[in-house]
Amino acid sequence: MDLINELRQRNLIFHITNENKLKELIQNKCISLYCGFDPTEESLHVGHLLPLITLKRFQILGHKPIILIGGATSLIGDPSFKKKERLLKSDDLINKWTIKISQQISFFLDFNCNLNNAIILNNNLWFKKINFLSFLRDVGKHFSINSMINRESVKQRIKRSDQGISFTEFSYTLLQAYDYFILNKKYQALLQIGGSDQWGNISSGMHLIHRASKKESYGLTLPLLMQSNGIKFGKTESGTIWLDPQKTTPYKFYQFWMNIEDDNVYRFLKLFTFIDIDEINEREQNKYKNNQIIFDKTLLAKHLTRLVHGDENLLAAERITNILFFKNIEDIKLSDLKQLKKDGIPVVEIYKIKDLQEALVLSSLAPSRTQAKNMIISNSISINTKKINNKNYTFNDSDKLFDQFTLLSRGKKNHCLIYWNKI
């Protein structure tokens, strides 16, 4: 299979070096390739899915993926296209997050398939042993300050009057370059992949390998996953969709993909799934026939929720969706309601039985009791998917699901979960 051509058809290539030679190389032999992940947070996010899935594409064809956890580099923080310097984290916190992220990554790749099983390494293995003066002599001498300053990611920070770039951050590219050099030397890694914002760092690694070892290596970057506001998904940005179910529930993760803009549906099917390109193109041609695009959003949401959270959590996300939008309340489980309480829909805690009008105001489904009364009379309010038109309605014990929760709805799309706190 021509994997490079496949990646191009899926719009997965942003930068690539020596494309024809790399294509010939991976068609004729199995190689080792790597991608780095700095544990600067306790979880990966949806922006990390592209490199992980791309590594999986290589592994399926017999190539060996290497995951490099930046236990050392995360103590510095990559400045690439960041508006300001990261807050430095402690060793203990980085070690804790390293364990969590390694566990997350283990779900995406095969670590027990003989010759091309994936491996996870930590760059602390070599950086904790390195001598500072030796590093400057053996690595620093191969880099020109002039060229480093002229990199776009550095220039943007230097030009900012309110936020320059520290020597700590400026040195980051040398550290990542040394990672590639070590992985090339000891683990025969011939290709590094990463997001398009990593192009400068990847180029530094290839440069160091060429200067210090006289060997050829390759780089490939992927497009960044952007939010609707044009900002990339990142660990320090707002609105992040995390892979950790404790930070973003499977239901909210599922709904994220269900609510993407129509223009992104088929682009994301190409980027994130293994569905045949021709099938995706055919689906796109028929997207406005019989609401095909809705089915295709569901296909995307199912595929990625199963990939990240497994079958059981996918079923839970689908069950909650059916309850909220199709009123199948009899299928609800206590675990579903706990998901919703965590981050699925707005939640309000109530300590004593309240009348419906007050609950609508407390839940922000109505701005006042008068408007709440009008909403009830107009038959637009539901309790646990059952319409209520009694303007003087007062909650009773039968309204409490599992003696803890009540689903309050205004119309079809506005929901709030009441949590009956017994304290």
From TrEMBL:
It is found in: Cytoplasm. PROSITE patterns: S4. Its EC number is 6.1.1.1. A motif ('KMSKS' region) lies at residues 232-236. Keywords: Aminoacyl-tRNA synthetase, ATP-binding, Cytoplasm, Ligase, Nucleotide-binding, Protein biosynthesis, RNA-binding. It catalyses: tRNA(Tyr) + L-tyrosine + ATP = L-tyrosyl-tRNA(Tyr) + AMP + diphosphate + H(+). GO terms for molecular function: ATP binding; protein homodimerization activity; RNA binding; tyrosine-tRNA ligase activity. GO terms for biological process: tyrosyl-tRNA aminoacylation. L-tyrosine binds at Y34, Y172, Q176. It is an enzyme of class 6 (ligase). A motif ('HIGH' region) lies at residues 39-48. InterPro entries: aa-tRNA-synth_Ic, Rossmann-like_a/b/a_fold, S4_RNA-bd_sf, SYY-like_C, Tyr-tRNA-ligase, Tyr-tRNA-ligase_bac-type, Tyr-tRNA-ligase_bac_1. ATP binds at K235. Belongs to the class-I aminoacyl-tRNA synthetase family. TyrS type 1 subfamily. PANTHER family: TYROSINE--TRNA LIGASE, MITOCHONDRIAL, TYROSYL-TRNA SYNTHETASE. Homodimer. This is Tyrosine--tRNA ligase.
